[in-house]
């Protein structure tokens, strides 16, 4: 079986809700069924084949090709398998994701790994590897899972985070860890922090070695990181949070 | 049966079903890994008085352990799963949590996973942190030397305890020297431990006693100073007997360890003072596993 590939036919003018195009949702469907899968495109409902050239039948491995920056909710509710986006995506990628692997080669919009609007929980499991940059609110209310971002991220990174791990190699915007309750945000660059993130000093943390070992299986620049010592900031004290921002040091 | 002039009795060791687990202890260096493991496996010679039988299985290099630090593997056996879980938690809390730089990881994976650091986390008083890494849950507990890292659970498997053999020699030093030789060889066998001090026990027991409160008492048939007064198993030239007890994860592991140990002794020859090799049993009535010495040494035990 060959990988199921969705190639955009044209440059999209409107947002598309790509949440039905996940390995779980397409599991067991024939190519003809997949082509008939309806999608919300702007104010219309259209079949998938109206927007994509679709090839391959292995729905456990999905690839998006073309300029996907208008595709929102890629990998939403995903539980297994893998999705690779060979470009950029819109907002709410990996929304309420529960398992599997989402690999984005380009950039992504706001709310990566967050939850649906109104939900009390964000991403619940799985792994996201983002090669480019992300917008605001990465991992908003994230409950479990791993987000590895090689580029920069916007404001409110790890806001209201409940648990899980986010790593960012580039820069982060303002209000990092706003309302953070638990979880780990791993940074390489010292961010601007609010007064409610408490400095706990620099330490050698044994679990970082385990984390580094687990990155070795993933196709990401994180595997080259020297993970051992980090400056630990804990918060958000504004809501008695016990989350941590670890800024890696030599 | 004779090997290199040493007589092997046509008898068998009788062993019991147990529950076993393995824990990997790591630390800043082997010295501290051993401090932790020695404490954890201390006072764990026999289930009769200690609850568990435990020992260090082997040393592990940094590239063999989960966190890339030097470590040791510890095996722990008990008569039931409940006791094993209780003892593991107690010993984790008092011996590993307390030991500088030590960390604990699962050494087995099984359907029945038991608590390793699952309850110990409450020592963190709310500041403990859970991390799910590679599908396994770990706990980070803030302690005064930094952070104590432990995996949440480890595996528990059906195991066997009480495999043994007896070394009958012409003197106490000769019996002990032979036992030391056997232990050195047996330490290299995986999946087994010899839980007694230095791997050797000098007070083998029989079932029952003349005293109502005792359910085990000295194995008088093998006590050299009682040769004339009891129905002794010892011939006149035997002056000392040492026993090696083996607990292992499977019948084959124990049989292999017994073979390795007995062969190491036999290689010493009769000049070593060793006259006979025998084994401890209860007539085959108590334990379901019989380790027949002749079959083991011929390599046909299964």
Can you walk me through this structure?
The complex is a heterodimer of chains A (250) and B (302). Chain A is mainly beta. Chain A has one domain (73-249). Chain A has helices spanning 23-26, 31-36, 48-51, 207-215, and strands at residues 3-8, 16-17, 38-41, 44-47, 52-55, 58-65, 71-72, 82-85, 101-104, 124-130, 144-149, 165-168, 184-187, 198-204, 229-235, 243-249. In chain A, the strands form 2 sheets. In chain A, strands 5-1-6-8-9-10-11-12-13-16-15-14 form a 12-stranded mixed beta sheet. In chain A, strand 3 and strand 4 (44-47) form a beta hairpin. The longest helix of chain A is centred in the last third of the chain and has 9 residues, at 207-215. Chain A is elongated, with a radius of gyration of 18 Å. The model of chain A has no long low-confidence stretch (mean pLDDT 95). Chain B is an alpha+beta fold and 302 residues long. Chain B has 2 domains: 2-15 and 160-298, Alpha-Beta Plaits (2-Layer Sandwich); 19-157, Alpha-Beta Plaits (2-Layer Sandwich). Chain B has helices at residues 30-40, 47-50, 81-96, 172-186, 251-266, 293-298, and strands spanning 2-3, 6-8, 12-26, 52-60, 71-78, 103-106, 113-115, 129-133, 136-143, 146-151, 153-169, 192-193, 205-207, 216-218, 240-248, 274-278, 289-292. In chain B, strands 1, 2, 3, 4, 5, 6, 7, 11, 12, 15, 16 and 17 form a 12-stranded mixed beta sheet that branches. In chain B, strands 8-9-10 form a 3-stranded antiparallel beta sheet, with no helix packed on it. In chain B, strands 13-14 form a two-stranded antiparallel ribbon. In chain B, helix 1 crosses helix 3 (81-96) and helix 4 (172-186) crosses helix 5 (251-266). Chain B starts with a strand and ends with a helix. The model of chain B has no long low-confidence stretch (mean pLDDT 95). Chains A and B meet through helix 4 of A and strand 8 and strand 10 of B.
Sum up the structure in keywords.
heterodimer, A: 250 residues, mainly beta, twelve-stranded mixed beta sheet, four-stranded mixed beta sheet, 4 helices, 16 strands, B: 302 residues, alpha+beta, Alpha-Beta Plaits, 2 domains, 23% helix, elongated
